[in-house]
Amino acid sequence: MISAHHISKSFGGIRAVADCSLSVERGQILGLIGPNGAGKTTLFNMLAGFMAPDSGRIELDGEDVTGRRPHELFHRGLVRTFQIAHELARMTVLENLMVVPPGQSGEHLLTALFRPARVKAEERAFRERAEEVLGRLKLGALRFELAGNLSGGQKKLLELGRAMMTDAKVVLLDEIGAGVNRSLMAELAGYIESLNRDQGYSFCIIEHDMDLIARLCDPVVVMAEGRVLTRGSMAEIRANDAVIEAYLGGHKTL
Amino acid sequence: MTALLQATGLLGGYGGMDILQGVDLAVDAGEVVVIVGPNGAGKSTAMKALIGLIPLKAGKVLYDGTDITGEAPERLVPRGIAYVPQERNVFRTMSVEDNLAMGAYIRRGDLSATFAKIYALFPALKDKRRQRVGELSGGQRQMVAIARALMIEPKLLLLDEPTVGLSPKVIGEIFDCILAINREGVGILMVEQNARAALAIAHRGYVLATGRNRFTDTAAALLGNREVAEAFLGGAG
């Protein structure tokens, strides 16, 4: 679905990503793990078009999309979760979800004026979808709350919800579990599984919660110091001494 | 043991919303206490309410036997209460050493003994003391935030999700630091979503849900409680 071929990116003198290749196949949930500062988020930013690689090539669905802008990639079915922007903090939780689907009829003045029934029907459909997403994320009671008033973990959930409002082919989730209660996280893992299995979404997930990675992801790619350290199943990763040294540490409870 | 901090019936929140519906919390001297619970349960809010960062409509907070309800946060720092917020908890454009010096803003006189103690606890920070904090890794930044709070030599340290967004290895290192700080006699109250690991190093824990106390017990008992594990810790361990 999406693949990076030997991509690199430097900031000043620092090589944040150095000659990295990875590929998310259709129907896969790929886990991307590694120490803080390993270059995972920079890699994500390049995959989603937020920055262009200095060298290398990115393909989406077999087509070269290197250097394409985020909105172009979004219209081709690629979504990445992001921090809630400040403007959206002044909108309600429900509104945050309802503005996501692209190409809404109500955006066009003439349609809005002369085809109100069509606009309304479309909004009703988006509303239903938004309500389903809110239910999954346990945010239903907060639908009319301003997004800016949510707790840290709830904002992460809303980020995931915004991605779920699209008919995306590939979703890039950047640390969706940080600050999210573990029991809810286990439920969200089930949600991601069903989106993957029943609706054909592919995922690439950056996450530090190893339970989540172990449950959802195959393969798992480990990055360290801008490079791909190794890749394999979670069982192989857990047994890899270099990964334990760089990333997992010796703490059994984590 | 005497209660270092004792809060009863905390009621309040932001604007019109009463996030806290009557929360009780206590930390004994030298104790490690963890607050866990779902998102939006009021964990961070409760911590802020303890130290006057949000106004209380009702409830009482005793610290070292003194009523500090409604006392301004800056008046609590000299009494030995240090707080590490979840976000924006370091000065990114300043060096490690300057960040620590900022933590000692209220102190006068020689700080060298405190610096020595803190660098012994965080050797990695000593090596990077001239470096800008914005250039450090996430784990090191969090260590700077905790170290800055320790500059007042507190009796009570409040930590709001100290391991959020950190890798498993670094989470282990942060918890090791917290244990080392506690061994010096500092009482610790922390909010954590890595609840299982946090309870593993804690004496006691509180489970908050929808602004109320749901479970209060020793850390071991909470870890062994099926209902708590299922609903709040992400399933049975």
Strand order of the largest sheet of chain A: 6-7-8-3-9-10
Question: Which oligomeric form is depicted?
Answer: heterodimer
User: What are the secondary-structure elements of chain A, in order, as H or E?
Assistant: EEEHEEHEHHHHHEHEHEEHH
Judging from the principal axes of the Cα atoms, what is the shape of chain A?
A: globular
The number of distinct structural domains of chain A comes to: 2
For the record, the CATH class of the largest domain in chain A is: Alpha Beta
Which CATH architecture of the largest domain in chain A?
3-Layer(aba) Sandwich
Low-confidence stretches of chain A: none
Task: Spell out the key features of this protein.
heterodimer; A: 254 residues; alpha/beta; Rossmann fold; 6-stranded mixed sheet; 4-stranded antiparallel sheet; 11 helices; B: 237 residues; 10 strands; 35% helix; globular
What is this structure's SSE topology?
The complex is a heterodimer of chains A (254) and B (237).
Chain A: E1 2-11, E2 14-24, E3 29-33, H1 40-47, E4 55-60, E5 63-64, H2 70-75, E6 78-80, H3 86-89, H4 93-98, H5 109-114, H6 116-137, H7 152-164, E7 170-174, H8 182-199, E8 202-206, H9 210-216, E9 220-224, E10 227-232, H10 234-238, H11 241-248
Parallel strand pairs in A: 3-8, 3-9, 6-7, 7-8
Antiparallel strand pairs in A: 1-2, 1-4, 4-5, 9-10
Helix pairs in contact in A: 6-7
Chain B: E1 3-12, E2 20-28, E3 32-36, H1 43-50, E4 56-63, E5 66-67, H2 73-76, E6 81-84, H3 96-103, H4 112-121, H5 123-127, H6 138-150, E7 156-160, H7 168-183, E8 187-191, H8 195-201, E9 204-209, E10 212-218, H9 219-224, H10 226-232
Parallel strand pairs in B: 3-8, 3-9, 6-7, 7-8
Antiparallel strand pairs in B: 1-2, 1-4, 4-5, 9-10
Helix pairs in contact in B: 3-6
